[in-house]
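It would be a great kindness if you could assist me with a short task in structural biology. The full record is reproduced below for your convenience:
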Amino acid sequence: MYRKELDNLIRSGSKVQAIMLYGESHFLIDYYLKLFSNIPDANVLSLYHDEYDFNSAKAHLSQGSLFGDQNLLIIKNEKKVPKKDLDTLLELVKKNPDNIFIYAYYGADMKTSAKAFNKKSGGIEVRMFPPFANEAKNMLLQEAQRLGVQLDSYAATHLIESQNGDLGLAFNELTKLQILGRPVSAKDIDALVYGVGEVKIDQFINHLLAKKDFREELQRILESGEDEIRIITAISSFMTQLYLFYANIKIHGIADSRAILGYKLPQKIEQERAQQSIRFKQHQYDAILNLLLENELKMKSSGGMDKNALLLATLIKLQSYI
C-alpha cells in the first residue's frame, strides 16, 4: 500500500488493526507510528530494538483487555522480526477486535517482513518514501496549524531549507516559533531557529567537509540544545542532497535544484551545492552515507551509549574518507 492510500483510510475513519510501517523515510515511519499509537487508555506494550521478545509480545496479545481497553503492541526495530513470529502475532490480532499491532521496521530487508502483512492475515503494509518538497511543506503547515503556529507557505519552505530539507528537524523547530503568537517571517526563523550567536548547521557541515577542525563548532551546537542524533541526521540529509546533485550532473551535465529537490534554491546556494557535490567520488558517497546510517542506528538502539563520543568518532572517521 502507498501512503496516499493510507491517508485515505485515515480520512475515512476505517479501523486499522495491524500495520507494518517501513521504507526509506524514518521520519514518516515515526510520524505514522505516533499517529496510530495515540489511543487513549490503551494497554500498551512497546518493544523497541533489542527489547524485542516474542513470548512477551505473544502474551500481551493473548491476554484479555482490561476494562474494555485495547491491547496495543508496538514493535520498533531495525532488525527483522522472524516471519513465523509475525504470522502468530497477526493471527492473535485477527482473533480479538480489541488487539492492535504496529510494526515499525527501520531495516533494509523490507520485502521479507512485509509479506506477512496481507489481506489474508488482516494486516496492511505501507512503504514510506521520502516526501516530495510540496508534500513536506504541506505536512509542516498542518503540524504548525495543530500547534497554533502562524506559518505561511513561504515561511514553511524557508524553515525546511534552513534544516537542509530534514522534515524531522523542521518539525522540532516549530516549538521555538510558538512563542511569537503572530505570523512567522523568514527573519523570525533565522533568529529563533538558530538563535543569536549559534553556529548554523550548514556552516558546521561545510567546515566538516572542508576537513577543518570542527570540534569547537560542534560543542557550541550541542550547547545550544541540539542533540547528537539530530546532528547526524542533518549531516546525512546534507550528504544525500549533495549526492542527488552529483548524480544529476553526471546524467544531465547541469545542476538544476528544481529538478533535483522539487523547489528552486537561491542561485548562490545552488552553485555551492553543485561545486561541493563533484568534489566526491561514488565510493566516497557510499562510505560516508553508510557510516552515518550505521552510527545513527547505533545511537537510536543503545540507550546507555555515550552518544557524544560516538558522534565525535563518526565525524573524525568521515573526514578520513574525504
